[in-house]
Amino acid sequence: MAEPLLADRTARVTYVLTKLAALAVAALLTWPLSRWLGPRAWWALAIFAGILAVMTAVVLAAGGRKKPPTAADESEDEESSRLGEGVVTLPVEDSLDLHPFDPSEIPPVVEDYLEAAHAAGFREVRLIHGRGIGVQRERVRSVLSRHPLVEAFHDAPPERGGWGATVAYLRDRG
Question: Per-residue pLDDT tens for 96-107?
Answer without folding.
Answer: 898 888 888 899
